[in-house]
Amino acid sequence: MKSNFELKYKFTRKIWKKLHDSNVPIVLAEHLEKASLEVALDKINRDLRNSQYLPSINHGFLGINKSHGVTRFIPILTREDMAVYYYICYLISGKILEKRESIYGGWHIIPDVQQKDDILTVEQIEGYLQDYFSDSVSKKNWWKEWTRFIDMIADLTSRKDIGNYILTSDIANFYDSISVDTLIKKLRKKTSKFGEQIDVLEVFLGFWNRLTNGYSRSTKGIPQELFSDASRVLSHFYLQDFDKRFLEYCNNNSIIYCRWADDFLLFGKSPKKLEAALHKASKFLLSDGLHLSAGKTKIMSRIEYRAYRCIPFLEAVQSNDIRKYEKSLRAHKKLFDAGEIRVDTLLKTAIGHSARNINKIGSYPKLFIDDAIRSNVDLSLTLNDQQIYNVILLNPKPGEIFQIFVRRLESKPYASSRATFLKMLRKHKRNLVALGISEKAQMASIGRIERASSDSVILREICIPEAKRAY
User: CA 255, CA 238: separation in Å to the nearest integer?
Assistant: First the structure.
């Protein structure tokens, strides 16, 4: 029986343009040309109509440093499979995602109406991104969701009536632990409108990892792909039944439950009560094959957590008062050096806000950022491309800090950090020249990264050739 499901030109081009501009540019300029894209779409849609679609073997894996050498490898799917996966998740997201007041992370891949954002440009938002791979098809949607989440934390940590204790935890190996069969069953139960699309999704999720599984069907795990928007939609949906049950329990026991993706927050009046709630959460999650991470579970006081999440600093940033911002940054310096706060939040927010106000700030924010980068090797290699450029822009010695990044990339084996730096070169080639970093020096950095990357197929075959092409 033939299917009526097919990809649309406009949507596919948007996803492919995003891939073209990404850390791993698997889409070249010629793939975006109308004739070329139409030929590719015709082949994909013919396979979909004839029920012959099967995911291709992916390009390989990109290594991300989690900490102390622990590396997370994310699959680099083909551009055709990314188009199929994203279009299905885009179509079904409006039917499957439920809005709950304290649950965050379930924004739509691409909104039906793109709203203008008068606060920050997309480039400025990139400077604030907190997670290493929190890149999103719609950065403005990410920004709105993230700021709503932080505003909620700021509000709850300032209230005495809800209790003085906060428990934090997350789901262990979340994406890898999702049951494909359970996910598909939940989707079919939630919506019957997209039966054909869910059939294709089931095939994709069963065989996306053929590089390691061959033709054996995967029954567990969804890909943590380059943007993670599609998998984010599915993972958020996967937890919605749990959210409903657990919210009911928490409401009946005077506990406030909040979630961002797989990160949990519980607010309550005693550690004993919060531990009992987490025990209940563990029982609820068991039916979906999920488990909480003991190593990441902590109980803090409300004040401690407020400081840990840098809420006073973020409030100073939001005030748009430069003196207040600089004073707060100075106050947080000791906490930053001691590792008593989210150091990534403080540094990345300082980078973004300082770059946005480069003509207004004094010398201290620039000195703080320079010192933080020089003294925190691993943290410096978690910056995204815009943040790396902003660090160079803000530095009194742009050429020197540029070379520090290159030396660190040579000494550390993480392909994701190198791919990000190469994207920064492609994107900011002319701006770097204006800062005194010649094209010759930029090209030399590509050569140094290439010589250090003999073990990475993704870098050798995709990222490095595209960086060279930019010159």
Answer: 23
Rounded to whole angstroms, the Cα distance separating 237 from 233 reads: 6
Question: Which of the pair, 129 or 409, is modelled with greater confidence?
Answer: 409
First-to-last CA distance in the chain? Answer: 50
Taking the whole predicted model, whether its pTM rises above 0.70 is answered as yes
d(CA 357, CA 318): 13
Q: b/e per residue, 363-381, with b = 16+ CB within 10 A?
A: eebbebbbebbeebeeebb
The closest of 462, 407, 446, 443 to 226, measured between CA atoms, is 462
The rounded distance, in Å, linking the Cα atoms of 368 and 173 is: 35
Tokens of 196: 């054909």
**For residue 225, what is the DSSP state?**
-
**Measured distance CA(107)–CA(97) in Å, rounded:** 8
- pLDDT-derived band at 122, boundaries 50, 70, 90: low
How many C-beta atoms lie closer than 10 Å to residue 244's C-beta? 13
User: Which residue do the tokens 């900490």 mark?
Assistant: 67
Kindly report, residue by residue over 288-330, the tens digit of the pLDDT: 999 999 999 999 999 999 999 999 999 999 998 999 999 999 9
Whole-number pLDDT of residue 330: 97
Q: Decide if 390 contacts 352 (C-beta within 8 A).
A: yes
Looking from the CA of 283 toward its CB, the CA atoms found within 13 Å total 9
Least Cα distance to 55 among 78, 87, 28 occurs for 78
Closest C-alpha among 399, 409, 325 to residue 362: 325
Angle at 349 between CA 433 and CA 410, to 5 degrees: 50
**Average pLDDT along the chain:** 92
The pLDDT assigned to 113 comes to 44
d(CA 235, CA 226): 15
Query: Which residue's structure tokens are 């930053």?
Result: 336
Q: How many residues does the chain have?
A: 471
Q: What is the mean pLDDT of residues 14-25?
A: 95
